[in-house]
């Protein structure tokens, strides 16, 4: 049995569905909400590049190195964005949660917190991961703060780690949650989500 296989993860606010080409129009609408592709320190596809990004993530899924999801709000059915398990290390039972973006109007609504709770629960309780990693651009202060609020600890900074689409070099901040920390992280995420239900 493969380490990762397609699954839907259902919460009170959102459902994480396996990414499919049929999500294209909804994902374009979500990216237009805030014109997220204009954030220079992220890699959110412009509308004309969304099809290629969906195809890229599905190809990585087929290669066993990514499990991509579409995030859908339960009460409206509206697509909010994308998230993934990536940099999969089945032998060491580690994954990264990343390549995540959500429509600007979904920020601070609890939907991203619940998405992370669903992904972390599946990773630690079903996949029996020993650690889950998060990475973000040094300049993405909003993302760094959100990852820290999850309860992840900063492991370090990979300087000049990768080249961005505009040619600039990215310093990547690495965070993780390890299995022994999961019960307390889970309890805090549940407490935070209670105000949105």
Automatic annotation (TrEMBL):
Pfam families: Acetyltransf_3 (PF13302)
Stretches assigned to the N-acetyltransferase domain: 14-153
A GO molecular function held by the record: acyltransferase activity, transferring groups other than amino-acyl groups
Domain of life where this protein originates: Bacteria
Keywords of the record: Transferase
Protein name, per record: N-acetyltransferase
Naturally occurring in which organism (per UniProt): Pengzhenrongella frigida
